[in-house]
Design a protein that fits this description.
By secondary structure, this protein is of the alpha/beta class. Helices cover 39% and strands 18% of the residues. It folds into two domains: 102 residues, Aspartate Aminotransferase, domain 1; 234 residues, Aspartate Aminotransferase, domain 2, CATH 3.40.640.10. Strand 6, helix 8 and strand 7 form a beta-alpha-beta unit. The model has no long low-confidence stretch (mean pLDDT 96).
Length: 349
Amino acid sequence: MKKINFASDNYAGVHPTILQALNAANEGDCAAYGNDRWTLEAIEKFKEHFGSSSEVFFVSTGTAANVLGLSTYLSSYQAVIAAETSHISSDECGAFENYTGSKIIPVKTGTGKLTVDLIASCLTDKGNVHRVQPAVVSLSQPTELGTLYSLTELKEITAYAHQNGLSVHMDGARLCNAAAALNVSLGSVTRECGIDVLSFGGTKNGMLGGEAVVFFDTSRELPFNFIRKQGMQLSSKMRFVSAQFTALLSNDLWLKNALHANALAHLLKEQLEPVQEISLAYPTQTNALFARIDNEIVIKNLLDTYAFYIWDHDGMEVRWMTSFSTTHEQVLDFSQEIKKQIVLFNKSF
């Protein structure tokens, strides 16, 4: 039996508009490796959202976007400061360390969010030849726990980082959801907040596959064309990534998809808030809901029909995610099934 997806927005299919764009890009031959009109159109679309001075490069995966984007700012004796829950630290199989030879300094945060004080605590050995030297701060927006940095928090962090000679990277795999939740533009939450390099995600918001590395730092010459090629991320048929991004960033499709996903996560939250046996682990701010259900049997029974992740086995914490393709009816059915399973368990004792 096919399980109904609340596991990840990665599980969702492709938005019909993006499929149409792919089909349109499939007519005839064109130059390879990004020397095509679709890639030029997509880059111009990025510049509309992120600023005319932005430098944009397309890659195939979020891990590649993070690792290659960060590697531009690092030597092997340097390090990246990141929350211990960040994707680069906990979910990329050591790709960053393997590829760059640099180190991640994982920081315990509680909320998934770095602060100026937490970053400062990592700088006490600056200049000490026996210690790895921090060079970049990496922020996830939203975090892996679904929490959000406000624009004020981002500006405080980037200002502090730059004052201390650090560059700032943003993992924006779900940046569309963050911007939608904050009711701001994509440029407002990145370039205007002082971010130097962004990993921008499309796969989780309706695309078939494709991510982008966007540079806002124009103070240095960035040889990213060569870094991307050496990093095995220069797609020959790049038009099929580019065409998707043009569709996503046109007619507010990115925003509509993100608003829909966010709204349904909040609907699920509203349905479950009155349930005494469920407590929310973190604020529900985008399209992720983290809940604690202190009942292994209920979780097991739900997993028979619904796909989702047990985030913390010891704490009985689960993650439920919505996407552009999640329906209102699916959320209501899921919430009713959760309540039903809790009632059945309580009656059995």
